[in-house]
Amino acid sequence: MSDKVDVLIQRLDADLPIPGYAHPGDAGADLVARVDVELAPGERAVVPTGVAIALPDGYAAFVHPRSGLGARLGVTIVNAPGTVDAGYRGEIKVTLLNTDLRETVRFRRGDRIAQMVVQRVSRAVFHEVTDLPGSARGHGGFGSTGGIADNGPTSREGA
Question: Which residue has the higher pLDDT, 146 or 104?
Answer without folding.
Answer: 104
